[in-house]
Amino acid sequence: MNKSKIKICGIKDIKTLDCCIEKKINYFGLIFYKKSPRNIDYDNASKLVRYSLNKNISPVAVFVNENLEDINNFIKKLKVNFVQLHGNENNDYIKFIKKNNDVNIIKSISIKSNSDFKKIHTYRDSDFFLFDYKPDNSELPGGNARSFEWSLVKDIKIDKPWFIAGGININNIKEIQKFAIPYGIDISSGVEDKIGIKNNEKIKSLIELYEKK
């Protein structure tokens, strides 16, 4: 695989989703975390999921330490096939979701040093991993426009597909390939005018650059 799949996270409207479909983006993230400026309510999320049907793009429902009963209700109502857990959820939490739903789980792991990759072994039932910048206590769990040291992924050995996230934009997306070709690249702040407001021209420009040889 010479190119990573692309996920744009924090989609909130049809126009942005249309742009993602046009540029053949593989995944779009719907954030169900009320503290996030990218939060979306169920009704709007449901419209986007229905709109995306049969359009070669997969919705990903993103949760942060959500109540298990609530997350099960969301999954069943939205009928999504991918769920991203971006909080402190453990493997029992993942097993419970998978026992009750036919979904793929993407578990985020915050990275600051090599030792953080050891957490992979504690999430045996996750289907994918997502490596992101490790926030401090004053920051959001994700979408902070900050990167971890990508050279840390250069020699990691993982038996599951993984995404890289955190501060990825048009100025640095090509840098990732110096260290690895991950299964997926997760982008949010790098295609925004301000937090939570996506810019379709930035999406187009970033994807066009990424696809250049």
Describe this structure in words.
The chain is α/β, with parallel strands linked by helices. It has one domain (5-211): Alpha-Beta Barrel (TIM Barrel). It is 25% helix and 23% strand. It contains 5 helices and 10 strands, in the order βαβαβαβαββββββα. An 8-stranded parallel beta barrel has the order 1-2-3-4-5-6-7-8. It has a two-stranded antiparallel sheet with strand order 9-10. The chain is globular.
Q: What percent strand?
A: 15-25%
- Please give the share of residues in helix: 10-25%
Distance between the ends: 14 Å
- The parts where pLDDT drops under 50 for at least 5 residues are none
> Looking at the structure, what is the overall shape?
globular
- Listing every helix as H and every strand as E from the N terminus to the C terminus, the arrangement reads EHEHEHEHEEEEEEH
Number of domains: 1
The fold-level CATH name is TIM Barrel
Known CATH architecture = Alpha-Beta Barrel
Number of strands: 10
Radius of gyration: 16 Å
| Count of helix runs | 5
CATH class annotation: Alpha Beta
**What would you give as the CATH superfamily?**
Aldolase class I
Largest sheet: 8 strands, parallel, barrel
Overall mean pLDDT:
91
List its salient traits:
eight-stranded parallel β-barrel; TIM Barrel; alpha/beta; 23% strand; globular; 213 residues; two-stranded antiparallel ribbon
